[in-house]
Amino acid sequence: MTAGAFCRSFFAVHALLVALLTAGMKDSLLGLQFGIGKIFVMASSDMLKDNVLDASGRGSNATFILNTVDYLNGREDIAVMRAKVQRFNPVEDTQAGTKAFVKAFNIAGLPIAVIIFGLGVWFRRHSRKKHIQMMFDK
């Protein structure tokens, strides 16, 4: 983010405005304001899509975008007031029975499941091999 008088970037626009002012067309420029500008450059507009911003506007990306827009509009005080929400999400204690079940399943259950699956694959290949051998023995 940058702020300042961007005279070099908008030299052509500035020259046109000076020409209109000197030509006496001051009335056509009513309502225009000139001053210091602010520019914010974002890598991609995907940051503004719904998959990054939540509907309630309370996520960190939504807070960042809202604070940036407020800063660019000259409302820095609102951006200061809007802070990130601190959430307290403690991990719940697991009961002893659940811990014992998960531990037993990981130590014994998964290896037994892998052995049963391997025996099933071996039995299927063995029966297919016998079936093909019987087809050619006839």
Classify the oligomer.
single chain
Which strand order do you get reading across the main beta sheet?
1-2
Major β-sheet annotation = 2 strands, antiparallel
- Low-pLDDT runs: none
Return Rg in Å. 35 Å
| Number of domain modules | 2
The fraction of residues in strands falls at: under 5%
* Fraction of helical residues: 40-55%
| Gross morphology | elongated
Number of strands: 2
Q: Report the total helices.
A: 4
Ends: how far apart? Answer: 83 Å
Mean pLDDT: 76
Helix/strand structural class: mainly alpha
Order of helices and strands: EHEHHH
Describe the structure.
- This protein has four helices and two strands.
- The protein is 53% helix and 4% strand.
- The mean pLDDT is 76.
- Strands 1-2 form a two-stranded antiparallel ribbon.
- It has two domains: 2-81, no CATH class; 92-138.
- It is mostly helical.
- It has helices spanning 11-22, 60-72, 76-81, 96-137; strands spanning 2-4, 37-39.
How are the elements arranged and paired?
Layout: E1 2-4, H1 11-22, E2 37-39, H2 60-72, H3 76-81, H4 96-137
Quick overview of this protein structure:
By secondary structure, the protein is mainly alpha-helical. It folds into two domains: 2-81, no CATH class; 92-138.
Comma- or semicolon-separated keywords:
mainly alpha, 2 domains
